[in-house]
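Try this one yourself first.
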């Protein structure tokens, strides 16, 4: 039996943002809001940007969450 990546939710949730099919799309509204909040909490305003991709936003969110002890 072959694994189907579309139905295997464990592998999809662990996928590297650089491998996302939609990773090059613009940052989402939810990501924008969360990234803004985290960058303020971490006192790193340069971590926030309006013109980044969804994949880059995800990476920055993960980094800030780790820095803040939220992950």
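Now uncover the answer:
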């Amino acid at each position: 039996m072959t694994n189907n990546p579309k139905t295997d939710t464990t592998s999809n949730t662990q996928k590297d943002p650089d491998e996302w099919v939609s990773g090059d799309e613009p940052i989402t509204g939810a990501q924008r809001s969360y990234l803004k909040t985290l960058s303020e909490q971490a006192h790193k305003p340069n971590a926030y940007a309006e013109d980044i991709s969804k994949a880059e936003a995800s990476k920055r969110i993960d980094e800030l969450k780790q820095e803040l002890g939220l992950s």
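Discussion: The mean pLDDT is 85. The CA atoms of residues 24 and 53 lie 5 Å apart.
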